[in-house]
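Retro notes
What went well: the complex prediction finally ran end to end.
Inputs used:
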Amino acid sequence: MTAREVVDLIRKNVGVPWNEQTYRDTFKTGNPDSTVKGIATTMMTTFDMIRRAHEAGLNLIVTHEDTFWNDRDDTRDLTGNTLYKLKTKYCLDNGMIVWRFHDHLHARKPDMTIAASLRSVGVEGGEDATMRSDHVYTIPPTTLGAFASQVKKLTGSRAFRVVGDPNVRISRILLGPGYAFPRMTMDADVVIGGEAQETDGVFDDTEYVMDAATLGIAKGQIILGHVVSEEPGMEDCAKWLRTFITGVPIQFVPAGEPFWT
Amino acid sequence: MNHPTDFSRRQFALIAGTVAAARIPAPGAAGPTAQDLVKRIQGILGGDWPDSGPDGFKAGNPETAVRGVATTAMATMEVLKLASKDGLNLVITHEPTFFGRQDGPAAALNAGGHGPAGVSASDPVYTAKKEFIDKNGLVVFRLRDHWQARKENDLTTGLAESLGWTRYRVSGDDAIYDIPASTLEETVAWIREKLKLRGGLRAVGDRRSRVRRVMLHPGLMAVNTMLDRFSGTDLIVAGEVREWECVHYAADINTSGERRSLVTIGRVVSEDPGMRSCANWLKPLAREVPVRWITVGDPYWRAV
């Protein structure tokens, strides 16, 4: 089976119409007509992740995020960049192929990145979660501090950040994947996402939650980090691929939380 | 902290010249209005001040007589309370007051009460904040584009000053500092202590790597800046970045064997010292009233 044939199978099974105009869900490097020995799913094609996939004998990487440090994987300004040359040479020398699976993964019903992220922080009932549903999940009442401790324990994240008064009682959760950070509403106590611009955006949750804390209004923001937020979804993606791709090993290879504190 | 060295000679000459032109009264004279003070600021900084830009009055009555001026990176509720308590009724903020670039309620709201931009006019946090400003006679003015457009970038030199690195500045470049060599781990501990960081600091890189040449980049850093400049530094200290861009690049460069590091401290924390510089810069322009910087502090904490 070639990489192109694997992608054709994904397109047949994804369950939503394929957008031929997508700039994201395309091959990024390697020859699509090479034979696939094994498939690695991952959240981000870091150089380190590519090496580990190769060492595991997996030459097709299905990645959720970019390979060349910008959303469009635009490499026109990178041709003179040493790191770009090293990374592409490594892929070429080792027959690695990278294909991005982003827009159509989020378009699926359910969106496995949201469903898995909810599960990863201990929120139940998100099995059918979809993008931009604004669905508020209710957890047994607890404090923001206790909930944050639970998130730490369950995700194992070292660097996630919390805003708000740790002592306020919370139970209504709004969660978005990656950069699709949900905007606080009157119906939610806590917003959870991967990453967001801190201020001067369309809606600044951080300042809103800081002010709510000063005013004694119970609100919280949990910023997981982009990788921590969407990595569980790519682990689920490996399981999903196994339901219709047979004959080659399929493994989830984590990019891993990049930060220490 | 009031360092006369915060003024370049160029600025001093400009201020001195404009002071005469604008007839800034001596201390003790009747207070200017917020509009008067803003006109002085605009006169010195120059440029266009279109209504569509981020800079401008965001709350309160510009005709209010100013009793004191507070500068801050972000006019949070906490900052406004401190300003009001100390009689500083004109607040000059670098970032928005009302939770986004729109800096006020959205024109059109969807069924959920939240429009495509801005905050709902009936939102309880928005209404309480607005009410506090009005009740206490505060005036909020945003100063962003024109402050960071200055030739001497006080956002950067202010951050260096907070880090105790002013004297290590590499000549000709206000962003580059050759600090006494230490490990990344030690440098991170220093940054955390100096900026009083709680949970907002995050680091990418080898803890044992040697750090000497540091680039400071307050605010949001785009990936092109990193592509251009990372290879000339041991460490970049940025306000915020996007994880799939700069963080990914910093991780990859370490995988390739180059020991270079990235530390993000949060956008507001990174811009806070530059607004202290702004307070010092404003003092000769607002001699009739006290001018003070109010720090926002690190918004983030970490779970235990």
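What we learned: The CA atoms of residues 237 and 263 of chain B lie 5 Å apart.
What to try next: split runs per interface for comparison.
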